[in-house]
Design goal:
Beta Polymerase, domain 2; 6-stranded mixed beta sheet; 6 strands; globular
Length: about 120
């Protein structure tokens, strides 16, 4: 990712891309004080596997138009959990069953939840 780009801008664009395609229960967690892996996790649910793909595609398209390219994308073939790694921002798109099973929010409960996108 371009180092001069504001990480918060990436989070906002990704959130908007997920919201635009009707992702449910979008959660943003600031993990910058807890991990060197990333600064933010964005977690979203889809109603089915087709929607997980559509959500991931839209995030990739919106961020790509802004010149933001992913480091890596995992899970496209199964569609149950698609992980889009944008260096300091990692986006998890789950079907509802797998989101409950992996419960990332519990694992990263010490992170700061961003309740309002305008808090960034």
């Amino acid at each position: 990712m371009n180092e001069t780009r504001d990480i918060r801008e990436v989070v906002k664009l990704a959130y908007q891309a997920l919201d635009e395609k009707k992702a449910s229960d979008i959660t943003i967690i600031d993990i910058s004080s807890l991990s060197v892996v990333a600064d933010y996790f964005i977690i979203a649910s889809a109603d089915n596997i087709r929607q997980t793909g559509a959500l991931a595609d839209n995030v990739e398209e919106v961020l790509g138009r802004a010149g933001i390219m992913p480091k890596q994308i995992e899970g496209r073939s199964s569609g149950n959990w698609i992980l889009l790694d944008y260096y300091d921002v990692i986006i998890h798109v789950f079907d509802k069953e797998n989101r409950l099973f992996y419960d990332i929010e519990r694992i990263w409960k010490d992170g700061r939840r961003i309740v309002d996108i305008n808090e960034l």
